[in-house]
Every structure is written in structure tokens, then in C-alpha cells.
Design goal:
Length: 121
């Protein structure tokens, strides 16, 4: 079973994405902060991480840096509501595998998660 880690400081988004991907046979865990995300990445070694950019404390860019440094094989898809492309460009430079913007298109997201996993296989 493929493992997905959803990271977002908004609990409703975590729950929403968890249910969506569990229905599609992923093993999903969630983290509500960057700090929690790094702990879960270490313990669970997910295949794909959906990572919110804007979070209090450690933000998505900082988490991305750490994840890519320690576990370069984990695919990271940034999730952002931020209109400016600046953060997205920074994330891509650091090694983000893709990004999607809120409001989320679940159809696109599901396709992209599958795509990223088949890149690994
Ligand atoms: Mg947020």
C-alpha cells in the first residue's frame, strides 16, 4: 500500500485529503505542523508528501529542504493558496516535485500523485 503524508495547518484540509486518498487505497497520515511533519517523515517514510507552504512555525519551504536533504527519494508536492509565484519558484528550486494551488482540484491531485509514484517505480 502506498504511503502518503498530508501536511497542512488547517485540520479540515488534512481530513478532507485523508478521506479522499484512503478511499483510493492509500495509507494516509497527517501532520498539522512542520515539526510534526518531520517527525512523521522519519518514522513513516512516506512515498509522497503533500506539503502546505504557509504554516506557522516551520513552513513548507523549510520542511521541504529537510525532507529533500534527508530523504531525497520522497516525492513532495507543494500545496499553496499563495498567489505569488515567488514561493513556488523557491520550492521548485529546492527540489519540490510539483505544486498545486488551493482551491484544490482533487482530480488533478490524484493524477499527479500517481504520476509521481510511477516515476519512482
Ligand atoms: Mg496553511
Amino acid at each position: 500500500m502506498l504511503k502518503l503524508l498530508v501536511v497542512d495547518d488547517e485540520e479540515e484540509i488534512c481530513d478532507f485529503l485523508r478521506i479522499f486518498f484512503e478511499e483510493r487505497n492509500f495509507k494516509v497520515s497527517t501532520a498539522l505542523s512542520g515539526e510534526e511533519a518531520l517527525r512523521k517523515v522519519e518514522v513513516e517514510q512516506p512515498d509522497v508528501c503533500l506539503l502546505d507552504i504557509k504554516m506557522p512555525g516551520l513552513d513548507g519551504i523549510q520542511v521541504l529542504k529537510e525532507v529533500k536533504r534527508r530523504y531525497p527519494k520522497i516525492k513532495v508536492i507543494m500545496v499553496t493558496a499563495i498567489e505569488t509565484t515567488e514561493k513556488i519558484e523557491e520550492a521548485v528550486r529546492i527540489g519540490a516535485d510539483n505544486y498545486i494551488t488551493k482551491p484544490l482540484s482533487l482530480e488533478y491531485l490524484e493524477k499527479d500523485v500517481h504520476q509521481k509514484i510511477s516515476d519512482v517505480a
